[in-house]
Structures
1.
Amino acid sequence: MNKKQRNVLIAVAVVVLAMLLYPPWQLKWSEGKVLGRGFGWLFAPSDPRATVDVGLLIAEWIGVLIVGGIAYLMLKDR
C-alpha cells in the first residue's frame, strides 16, 4: 500500500464516520406514509418521533465504499 492508497482509506473512513454521525432521518405516519426529515446530528434528532433511515444510510455507505475501492485500485503502484 502506497501513501495515496492510505490517504484514500483514511478519507473513506472519515466520510463513513461522518455519515454515521449525521444520518438521514425519517418520520413514519400511522397511515403508512414516510416523510424524509433530512440529515441531522445522531444524538439530537429534529423530531423526537423521527428514526434513522437505515436503508438509505447503508446505500450511502455502499456507494462510498465502491467509489473508495475503485480509487484505491486505480492508485495502485505498477
2.
Amino acid sequence: MRVCQACSAKIEQKFIGRADECASCGADLHACLNCRFYDEQMSRSCREPLAEPPREKARSNFCDYFDFSEAGPRHKDDAGEAAKAAFDALFSSKK
C-alpha cells in the first residue's frame, strides 16, 4: 500500500513525478523517505549502489532509481531511543 511518509495518507497515483505532492499534507512524494531503496541502516541511507542519495531525504530529488515503496509507513525503532534514554539516565545521575 502506497502511503505518504509525512502523514500516512494513502497515495492513489501510479506514476510519481518529481514535482508531485501529497494531496493531504503537501509533502514531496518523489523523495528518499518514500522510496523502496531507502534504508537508514545502510551507508548513505540507500540500498541502491549506483544512486547518489541527496542530503535531504524528505525533499523532492532527481534520482533515476526512485521506486515508490509499497511497504507502508516506516516508523523509527523505539528500542534504540529507549536504550539511549536508559544510558543517559544511568550516567547523568552519577555526577
3.
Amino acid sequence: MGVTEIDSLDQLQEHLARGDSLRDVVIQGLDLTALAEELDVRDLTDTVFLGSELAPSTYARACSNGAVIFRPPIDVPFSPFRSALYTPEELFSGFDPDSPDTFSDTLDERVYRHFKARARAGGTILDSLSCRLHDHGITDALQEKISGRKVVAIMGGHGMRRDDNGYRDVALIARGLTETGFLMTSGGGPGAMEATHFGAWMAHRDTGDLEAALEILGDVPGFEPRERWLATALEVKTRFPRVRGPDGALPDSLGIPTWLYGHEPPTVFATDIAKYFANSVREEGLLAIATYGVVFSPGSAGTIQEIFQDAAQNHYRSYGQPSPMVFLGEHYWQVEKPVFPVLAELATGNDYASLMHITDDVDEVVGHIVRYAPRRENATPS
C-alpha cells in the first residue's frame, strides 16, 4: 500500500468524509486544532504528522496510537515542512518602495539572516535538519509545478545589467518561448536570470511595451542597492500586468534561487519561486528539470560550471534523453570563453552533438528549442 500525502485542510476533510483510513497518511504543515473532535476518534496508527499543529487531545491520542510526529520548530523564520512554492508576494511581504528600511523585515531577508548566522555557519543538527526538510518539501512542490510542462532554462551571469543588449536578448528569447508554450526557469536571481522572468512576464505584449518596461528597469541597472532594484521591478509589474494568451492562461515562470547567495535577491518577475538552502541540490535540479533545453547566455565561472554539468547530464543520459544546449553569443563562447569548441569535441560521435547550437540570433535560439519539442513528445522510451 502506498503513502498518501495531504497538505491542505480541504484535502484532509475530503479524506475524512470518505471514511478513509489514516494509516500510512502523511499530513504536512497544517493547523489541525479545529479538527480535534474528529481526529480524536480515529485510528492514528502509522499516521505521520509533519510540522502540523495538534490539539493536546489529538497529540495524546497520536502518541498512544504510535503515530510519527515531527513538531514544528518555534525558533526559525521558515517552515521546515513547507508544502508549496514561494511567491514574490510572500517573500517580500511588507516591503514599501517608499521606505527602503522595510526590506530588512521581509521574509526573504529574515530567512537569509538566520541562514548566515546559524545554518550556514555550522549551527546545530536541528538547524541542518530544518534546512534539509525544507528543501525536500520545495522539491516535492516543484515537481507538482512542472508536471506536464515543457521546461526550458536560461543560464547566464548575475552581473548582466538591465541596460545591456544581452539582457534585452534574453528577455526576447524568454518571451518568445513562453508564448510558444514553454515554462521558463532560471536560477531566479538578478542579471540574466531576472531577464528570463521579465521576458516571460511580458509574454503576449508587443515589443513597444517591453522597451518601455526596460526603460524603467534601466534606472537601476544593477542589483545594488537592492531596495531600488526591487522597487523598479515592482513598478514594471504594476504598469504592465500579465496578459492572457490565446488559451486564456496567464504566463508564468519558475525561479530557483538559493539562500547561499542570499545577498542576490530573487526576481519578483518569477510567478513561482523554489528557493533552496542547499545550492548543490538547486543547481543539479535546475538543469535536470530543463528537459526541453538550456540556453546559455554570457556568464562567468558559475555559468561555465553549469554548462559542463548540463553536458555531463546529456553525455551520460542522467535524466533520460539528452536535450538542447544553445549558446547565445558566438564570439563570447568561441573566443572569450572558448567553451563551445571543447564541448563540440566532447560530443563527437554522440547523439547530443546535433542538439548543440551556437548563434547570435534571438529568433534562431527560439527556433532551435521549438524544433526539438516534437521529438520528445513523440519519442518512444528506451
4.
Amino acid sequence: MRKYFICVLCVLSPFLTYAHQSIDDQLSIYYSPDASHAPIIQGIQSAQHSIQMVIFHINDKDVEDALIAAAQKGVKVQVIVDGLSLKLPSFSSSKRRMEKGGVVVTASSSGFKITHQKTMVVDDKTAYVTTMNLTKKVDSTRDWGVITQDQRIIAEMDSVFQADLSNASTGQGLTPSLSESHLLWSPVNAEQKLIQLIQRAHTKIISTVENLGNAAIQKAFEDAAARGVDVRMISPLCDIAVNANHNVSYMKEMESKGVHARLMPNPQTATQPYMHAKMILVDETEAYLGSVNFSDNSLHNSREAGIIFQNSKANSTIKNEFEKDWNQAISPTSTLPSCAG
C-alpha cells in the first residue's frame, strides 16, 4: 500500500507545481498497473462546475461513484460512451446506474465504427488524455495517462466533444476544424501525425501497441530501422480484442525488416502486463500516448484521440517502464506459447 501512494504522489505532485507555460512544461503522466484509476477519480472529485468525458468502456464502480457524487453536488457531468459497448449488459447497466445518479450519458455516434477515445476535461481547466479504459482490470495492464492545463488543448477537446454530441444525435462522423499541433484525432489526422513523429527519429524509437495492421505506420517503423534508427516494439502475444495471434505476423515481418520486435506473453500480471498502451517515444525526447492503435480500423474508421509532447520527466518514466516490459517479452521468431485457455 505504501508503494502505491508514493507512486501516485510522485506522478501528481510535479503537475501541481508546474507554471502555466507550454504543454510540454506543465504536463504530467500516470500509469497502470501502479496508479490505476486514482488520478481520474481525483480529477472527478476536484470538479466544481463541469466534467466532459469520452470513453470506450466504463464499468468501474469506483469511477461511476465519483461521477455520480459530482453530479449530485451540482457538477454538470456529461459522458459519451461507445454506442456499441452500451449494448453489452455490463456497460448498459453502468449507463443506467450513472443516469439514475444524475450523470448525462450519451451513446456515441454510429458515424464512427467505434468511439475508442479515452479523455476527460474538468472545469474547462484540466485535461486528461489516456490509453486506458475505465474498467476494473488495470492491475495487470500497461496503460498511460497525461494531465495538462494547457488551454489550447482544452479548447480543441471541447470543440470535438461538442461536435460528437451533435454527431450522436445525427448519426454522422463529422470533425470540427483542428489546429492544435499536440493533439491527434482519428479518423482525421492521426495517421499523418504518427508517421511524421516516427520520421523525426534520429537514433532510437521505443513503442508499445495493442493492435497492428496499418501498412503506412508499419512501413514508417521499417523505414526508420532501415536508416539506422534503433526501433524496438512490444505488442501482446495474445490479443484480447481480435483473433488471439493478430499481431504475430506483423511483428515477424517487422523483425525481418530490422525492427526489434517482442511479444508480451500470457498470463498477464502486474510484472508481465497486457500491452494495451499505445505509445511511441522518439529519441527519448518526444512521445505519443493515446487511444489510437496502429490498425486501419483505429486510424480510419473510429473516433480516437492522442497527444504528442516533449517532457523529460515523463519521457524518462515511459522509458523506464518500457525497459521492464521489454525484459519480460519474447521474440516473435521464438517458439511461441499457445494462447488457448
